[in-house]
Amino acid sequence: MHDVSHGPVAAAAFSDEERAAVYKAIYSRRDVRDQFLPRPVPDEVLMRLLDAAHHAPSVGFMQPWNFILIRDEARKAQVHRAFMRANDEAKGLFTDERQALYASLKLEGIRNAPVNLCITCDRTRGGKVVLGRTHNRQMDVYSTVCAVQNLWLTARAEGIGVGWVSIYHDQDMRHILGIPDHVEIIAYLCIGYADELYDAPELEIRGWRKRLPLEGLIFEEEWQRSAISSDPPRPDPATGLPATRSTCD
């Protein structure tokens, strides 16, 4: 594991090579769906990933996460059945044209990945009053998502693929994994070595959706209308009526 210093750390920038490695992990991170190899993940590597997740920022330093490792084939089969039930429901929510594309996507690697990992958020950790969560109760959830991202980026650096499974009924997963009501399920991840990674997100390559242009997502000082915003026009202060969109928005 990483040796963490408890003293002051210099705020100097990383070297060019170190900085390039950080950006490489970010830009080449992919959601691995079903390309996992049977090669096991060594315990020492898995612990490095979990240690990186454990060093995510957390509101009030409450560290609300827990990590449930699932390697038993029978339990993974239970999870897979829960996924398949929900996946059949999800497919029916799309239009006929999208249904065919949806059905062609391999959206999970539950059975193929050597390790499944459920990351949870214990919303009672730290007591009723938590520094930084007094006015935004979701901050503990956001903190746990940071742990997910830490693990995902370090997995990329280790040459390990990660897939996020989000299609299941919450109560099904709670029953299978014995998760109590006060603990929130944040992520169910498939983890393992992969034979290849796409140059771009698979959903972009397969035509599901394109990456939005960054310049259309940046606002100055306040919320603004943009060509890619799905929000309705803000009311005109003088009339109270919806403002007319300009071709210059």
TrEMBL record:
Residues 225-249 are annotated as: Disordered. The keyword Flavoprotein applies. It comes from Phyllobacterium brassicacearum. Gene3D superfamilies: NADH Oxidase. Belongs to the BluB family. It catalyses: FMNH2 + O2 = dialurate + 5,6-dimethylbenzimidazole + D-erythrose 4-phosphate + H(+). One of its GO terms (biological process) is cobalamin biosynthetic process. SUPFAM superfamilies: FMN-dependent nitroreductase-like. It comes from the Bacteria. Residues 26-193 form the Nitroreductase domain. This is 5,6-dimethylbenzimidazole synthase. Keywords: Cobalamin biosynthesis, Flavoprotein, FMN, NAD, NADP, Nucleotide-binding, Oxidoreductase. Its EC number is 1.13.11.79. Homooctamer. It is an enzyme of class 1 (oxidoreductase).
